[in-house]
Design a protein that fits this description.
The complex is a heterodimer of chains A (230) and B (249). Chain A has 230 residues and is mainly α. Chain A has helices at residues 28-44, 49-55, 58-65, 71-105, 110-138, 141-159, 161-167, 173-185, 189-197, 207-212, 215-227, and strands spanning 3-8, 11-17, 20-21. Helices cover 71% and strands 7% of the residues of chain A. In chain A, strands 1-2-3 form a three-stranded antiparallel β-sheet, with no helix packed on it. The longest helix of chain A is centred in the middle third of the chain and has 35 residues, at 71-105. In chain A, 28% of the residues are buried. Chain B has eight helices and eleven strands. The chains are: A mainly alpha (230), B alpha/beta (249). The A-B interface holds A 54, 57-71, 227, 229-230 and B 53, 56-60, 76-80, 82, 84, 86, 88-92, 104-105, 107-110, 150, 160.
Chain lengths: 230, 249
């Protein structure tokens, strides 16, 4: 059974996904806001990679890279710009909700602010990075959107590899080694999303390890852009 | 210090990218020392655009050394004084003419040395009526003028033009060529100019660089071409015709 929802007399009792129990955490408002926020980013900015892909289009790249524009600085500048844009985009809503919570709780909701500033933004940024990597490789807008979603899907399957392999009756050492190897190659977008949705708590995940998993796509994107021909 | 130096530059394309024929650009040694209007002449597919894109680091050569103003072409600073008119380009459709110029020149932190120069560019190319026109509403010729104005904006030493006269009407062609000639005379500008419009280019060129089957030759002066061949067309015909697929009359 890939997912299971149990409803008892008192309401929702248990949710499981690929055999993993989703914990009920106390800070439901944080989870709710994180979820809403990531969804908001996904719906409002799904085409955020499009300007980047427009810039590396052969007909436009000539206008940019024939100028004193460094290829090495181009990608970090773009990532920084997008990150700042997302922060600015978020600032108003975070401040408003944070202020409302402060007035209601009579204290500054640090957990809420830190969580909402961190996980949804990182998750979305992870998607963005993968999106531009797929765009750089394929030159296709559709693949740059579909690629990160597929990556997220595989990352979820790999995160729950034992349950998946056992449900497919393939729970042997070789299959597990291959799955583990791929798990460490594919950016771990799932953990970031699960943190955002409250399916995981921050203390259950090595956040540094998750963030490091994005190093490979970043290095790949650098290598591709520095050798790209326009 | 030469404006452009190429030494043993090789750039190859596999057969699959070139209609079944392997293509190799080969520049044994080339130095452009003096300012001038250098016409880059060659048949279709000879390697003119590959050569231009290689010196601007838009293509990565397999081997060799390219220097602009004494700096490696890989150094972005080497392109600070260069203006480039690509054969094909794409500006954001939702900007107006002057915003597009500001955007792409702003990337390089570049602007005309003086307001007078900017006004001169606008006046010489008759751009006044276009400045507030949306890019999406520009005609083919107006779009090409945008590409030209974008390259000329703030250019100070080296102008690289890949078929810049494409899509322009005869009057516009004449204005662009005259303005290029004026800039060359007044500012000691070096212009590398690829074109097939020989009759118009003949008015302004000072030297020719012949590109034949991927090989870029040494500069030939206007004087030498006129003396030996009479006209640019005759030189072009004799220098380039004669391959297997050509019929020579």
């Amino acid at each position: 059974m890939l997912s299971r929802v149990e409803i008892g007399s008192g309401g929702l009792e248990r949710i499981s996904l690929f055999g993993m129990n989703i914990p009920f955490i106390e800070a439901k408002e944080v989870v709710a806001w994180n979820t809403i926020y990531l969804m908001l980013l996904m719906f409002v900015c799904p085409d955020l990679p499009v300007p980047f892909l427009g810039m590396i289009d052969k007909k436009r790249a000539g206008l940019i890279f024939a100028r004193p524009v460094s290829r090495r600085a181009f990608l970090p500048a773009n990532l920084l710009g997008v990150f700042l844009y997302l922060w600015l985009f978020s600032a108003v809503s975070i401040v408003t909700v944070g202020l409302a919570l402060t007035l209601r709780l009579q204290e500054v909701p640090i957990e809420f602010i830190s969580s909402v500033c961190l996980f949804p933004l990182l998750a979305f940024f992870g998607f963005y990075l993968l999106s531009i990597l797929f765009g750089l490789i394929s030159h296709s807008y559709s693949l740059s959107i579909i690629g990160p979603i597929l990556c997220g899907y595989f990352s979820l399957l790999l995160y729950r590899q034992e349950s998946v392999l056992s449900s497919l009756d393939m729970l042997n050492e070789t299959a597990q080694s291959i799955a583990t190897a791929i798990y460490y190659i594919i950016p771990r977008i799932t953990e970031l999303s699960l943190l955002t949705f409250g399916f995981l708590r921050a203390d259950e995940v090595e956040l540094t390890e998750v963030l490091l998993s994005f190093l490979l796509p970043l290095v790949l994107a650098f290598a591709i852009i520095s050798q790209k021909e326009f | 210090m030469p404006i452009l130096l190429c030494d043993k530059v090789v750039k190859s394309y596999p057969k699959v990218h070139n209609g079944g024929k392997p293509f190799i650009l080969n520049v044994e040694h080339l130095e452009l020392e003096a300012p001038g209007i250098y016409l880059l002449l060659g048949r279709n597919g000879a390697g003119k655009t590959t050569f231009i894109k290689s010196i601007l680091h838009l293509l990565i050569p397999d081997a060799g050394r390219i220097e602009l103003f004494g700096m490696s072409f890989k150094n972005p600073e080497s392109r600070r004084m260069i203006g480039y008119v690509p054969e094909e380009c794409s500006f954001p459709q939702d900007l107006v003419f002057k915003e597009a110029i500001r955007l792409f020149n702003g990337l390089a932190g570049r602007r005309p040395e003086s307001e007078a120069l900017a006004n001169e560019l606008i006046a010489k190319l008759y751009l006044n009526s276009l400045l507030n026109k949306k890019v999406s509403h520009l005609s083919r010729g107006e779009y090409q003028l945008l590409a030209i104005a974008n390259a000329f904006w703030g250019v100070s030493r080296f102008l690289v033009c890949d078929e810049p006269l494409n899509g322009l009407d005869p009057i516009q062609k004449e204005r662009v060529l005259q303005y290029i000639h004026q800039l060359y005379q007044r500012m000691d500008l070096t212009v590398l100019f690829s074109t097939h419009v020989l009759s118009e280019a003949e008015q302004v060129y000072t030297s020719v660089l012949l590109v034949k089957e991927g090989s870029v030759g040494q500069p030939l002066t206007r004087h030498k071409i006129e003396e030996e061949f009479g006209s640019l067309y005759e030189f072009f015909r004799r220098a380039t015709v004669g391959g297997e697929d050509d019929v020579v009359e």
